[in-house]
């Protein structure tokens, strides 16, 4: 059953719980570091043969149940006019961030089929090598992209982003509309290039108060999902929406229209699933730091997650956020084998029913 990841996204029964890991291709792998020695990170992303090779590394090393295209959420912003570099130890830097409404008006309109053609080519190359194993395409979500575009890099408090949102609502919504269009077009292009599912990374949306998510973000996230669905029709793939620290946003997440919702480790999987509603599949939710712990603890935590999922169709095992640099490779292999050999528990009653 090579399509068990896609079946789980659609909440269809599977022979065992599928597993893949966010950021599964990365510096914790010696094979990745060997390639990275010869290229800069952006150069790897922009060279389709290299991006394809690196995408396949965790498939070959661990036999995970899905591939995710090797790329990053920020390169699509270059087409709008942002200057992007990755600095050692600092992560991404945008050198001309948005500071005023006129910076939004001055953004270029861009067609991701041209500006991010390298990732579309990489998807086509990888697809040929996968023998039917599902391939995941992805994009940053409008809010998380806007936060990088405004802060110019990572942030703890998102002060500039929130101030811009509160003080310049018209320019904010203009920026979010431009980003939503870019994201939707980019996801559609990835599906046309061979992606079987798409994940929208809203890594930092958990920094928002629910009222701010509702007033400044929700409609744009909904537009992305609705546009992908309506333009692709029957060919629309499962759509995964992922964020961290989202436990307080359940009511909003339910309205996005995604098929699958990501769950981080700050909430028990069954509690999150009951709040998100069983019409969604869920993906998660091991703390990535657990992979540094002894094997017995990794097994105990993974077992608990699988038991909390309760054999209900629609659970995809993953970490609650991307795998960390320096994670021991043999612990990753151990986790994948543990999950893949875990017998699916007989379906337990829904938490909602138990609590009634
Ligand atoms: C916020 C964000 C980014 N990028 C991404 C997100 C959303 C997911 C999340 O919240 O983790 C998404 C991403 N970035 C990368 C992937 C590849 C696919 C995968 O294997 O999951 C994916 C899905 C590769 C990468 N993206 C980056 C690397 C490391 C680059 C290197 O080799 O130096 C990789 C493998 C760089 C990057 N890119 C970004 C940061 C903050 C950094 C620096 C942090 C770091 O160095 O780990 C932005």
Automatic annotation (TrEMBL):
EC number(s) reported in the record: 4.1.1.37
Catalytic activity field: uroporphyrinogen III + 4 H(+) = coproporphyrinogen III + 4 CO2
GO cellular component: cytosol
Alphabetized GO MF terms: uroporphyrinogen decarboxylase activity
Quaternary assembly: Homodimer.
Keywords, comma-separated and alphabetical: Cytoplasm, Decarboxylase, Lyase, Porphyrin biosynthesis
Domain Uroporphyrinogen decarboxylase (URO-D): 18-27, 136-152
Pfam families: URO-D
Record PROSITE patterns: UROD_1, UROD_2
Family: Belongs to the uroporphyrinogen decarboxylase family.
GO biological process: protoporphyrinogen IX biosynthetic process
Record: residues binding substrate: 23-27, 72, 148, 203, 321
PANTHER family attached to this UniProt entry: METHYLTETRAHYDROFOLATE:HOMOCYSTEINE METHYLTRANSFERASE RELATED, UROPORPHYRINOGEN DECARBOXYLASE
Annotated protein name in UniProt: Uroporphyrinogen decarboxylase
Subcellular location: Cytoplasm, Cytosol
Function text: Catalyzes the decarboxylation of four acetate groups of uroporphyrinogen-III to yield coproporphyrinogen-III.
């Amino acid at each position: 059953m090579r399509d068990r990841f896609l079946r789980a996204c659609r909440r269809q029964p599977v022979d065992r719980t599928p597993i893949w890991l966010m950021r599964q291709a990365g510096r914790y792998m010696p094979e990745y570091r060997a390639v990275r020695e010869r290229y800069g990170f952006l150069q790897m992303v922009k060279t389709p043969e290299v991006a394809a090779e690196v995408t396949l590394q965790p498939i070959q090393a661990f036999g995970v149940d899905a591939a995710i295209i090797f790329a990053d959420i920020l390169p699509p912003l270059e087409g709008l006019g942002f200057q992007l570099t990755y600095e050692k130890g600092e992560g991404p830097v945008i050198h001309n961030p948005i500071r005023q409404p006129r910076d939004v008006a001055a953004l270029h309109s861009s067609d991701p089929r041209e500006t991010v053609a390298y990732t579309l080519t990489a998807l086509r190359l990888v697809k040929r090598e996968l023998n039917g194993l599902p391939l995941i395409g992805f994009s940053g979500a409008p809010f998380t992209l806007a936060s990088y575009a405004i802060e110019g890099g990572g942030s703890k408090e998102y002060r500039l982003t929130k101030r811009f949102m509160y003080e310049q609502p018209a320019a904010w919504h203009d920026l979010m509309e431009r980003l939503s269009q870019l994201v939707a077009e980019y996801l559609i292009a990835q599906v046309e290039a061979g992606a079987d599912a798409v994940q929208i990374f809203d890594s930092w949306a958990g920094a928002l108060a629910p009222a701010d998510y509702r007033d400044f973000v929700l409609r744009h996230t909904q537009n992305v999902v609705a546009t992908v669905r309506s333009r692709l029709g029957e060919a629309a793939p499962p759509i995964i929406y992922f964020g961290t620290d989202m436990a307080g946003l359940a009511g909003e997440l339910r309205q996005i229209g995604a098929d699958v919702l990501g769950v981080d480790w700050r909430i028990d999987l069954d509690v999150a699933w009951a709040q998100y509603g069983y019409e969604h599949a869920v993906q998660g939710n091991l703390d990535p730091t657990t992979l540094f712990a002894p094997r017995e603890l990794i097994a105990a935590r993974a077992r608990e997650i699988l038991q909390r999922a309760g054999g209900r169709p629609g659970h995809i095992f993953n970490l609650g956020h991307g795998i960390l640099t320096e994670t021991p490779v043999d612990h990753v292999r151990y986790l994948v084998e543990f999950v893949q050999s875990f017998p699916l528990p007989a379906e337990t009653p829904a938490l909602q029913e138990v609590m009634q």
